[in-house]
Design goal:
Largest sheet: 8 strands, parallel
Radius of gyration: 19 Å
Helix content: 10-25%
Order of helices and strands: HHEEEEEEEEH
Distance between the termini: 65 Å
Shape: globular
Length: about 150
């Protein structure tokens, strides 16, 4: 006989409209990129104002304002938006970026992506439909400069 259990709502949540029981996380979800250490996800509907200085991967589905972001990878998804200053190794923009963006390796602008402001990059790919506006220029010896600054 198969017995399916239903999530139990703690008594303190039972009277709160829209309250849900905690979800069960599968082993596959625990190994997902969002669950890895060093990954920050700004979900849809979230607005965040912050400085982020030690981030491997930043996924943006909501909106983030930052006067200083340092991360290895920035992924702004279709409905995501970033306003501020960022120094990134790799950026993939399918949403909107506005501000100062330094990409030390590769900037990819997807068909729905919009990047505006002061943009510096080592390598640039703009897919059909993607847009870039403002003061854009290539970084000279970006990878060498980063390694030298860390020494």
């Amino acid at each position: 006989m198969s017995h399916q259990s239903t999530p139990h709502l703690p008594a303190r949540l039972a009277g709160i409209p829209g309250a849900r029981a905690p979800s069960v996380v599968s082993a596959a979800q625990e190994r997902s990129p969002e669950a890895l250490a060093g990954t920050l996800v700004v979900g849809a509907g979230i607005q965040l104002k912050a400085e982020v200085s030690a981030c491997e991967v930043l996924h943006v589905d909501g909106k983030i304002e930052s006067s200083g972001l340092k991360a290895k990878t920035l992924k702004i998804r279709k409905d995501g938006a970033f306003v501020g200053n960022a120094e990134i190794e790799t950026a993939i923009v399918a949403g909107k970026f506005e501000g100062n963006l330094n990409v030390l390796e590769h900037l990819t602008i997807k068909p729905t992506g919009r990047v505006s402001g002061k943009i510096r990059y080592a390598k640039l790919t703009i897919e059909e439909g993607g847009q870039i506006a403002g003061d854009a220029d290539i970084l000279k010896n970006a990878k060498y400069q980063k390694e030298r600054d860390q020494a």
